[in-house]
Amino acid sequence: MLKAILRTGFEHVEDGFDLLFGPKWNPLYQLGALGWFYYWIVVISGIYLYIFFDTGVTQAYLSLEYLTHEQWYAGGVMRSLHRYASDALVVMMMVHLLREFAMDRFRSSRWFTGIPMLWLVFTAGISGYWMVWDQLAQYIAIASSELLDALPFFGESIARNFLTDAKLSGRFFTLMVFIHIALPLILLFVMWIHIQRHSSPKVNPPRELALATLAMLLILSFIQPAVSQPPADLSMVPATVNLDWYYMPLYPVLDKVPGLTVWIALVLGTVFLMLLPWMPPGKRAAAAVVNLDNCNGCSRCVADCPFSAIRMERRSDGKAYEQEAVVDADHCTSCGICVGSCPTATPFRTRSELAPGIELPEAKISALREKTNTVSAQLAGENRVIIFGCDHSLNPTDLSNEEVGVVTMPCVGMLPPSFIDYVLSRKLADGVFLTGCREGDCSFRLGIRWTEERLDGRRDPRLRARVDTRRIARYWSGLTRRREFFKELSKFQGKLEDLLPDSNRGGGMEKESSDD
Amino acid sequence: MIDPKYWLGQIIAFSLFAAALGYFSSSPSYTYHDPGLGLLMISFSHSSERKEECREFTQKELNNLAPNMRRPLDCPRERVALHLELIMDGDVLLEKAYQPTGLTSDGAVSVYESIPVAAGEHEFRISLRDSKRESGFDFSKTRLLNLKPRQLLVIDFREELDGFIFKKGE
Question: What residues does each domain of chain B span?
Answer without folding.
Answer: 37-50+80-168
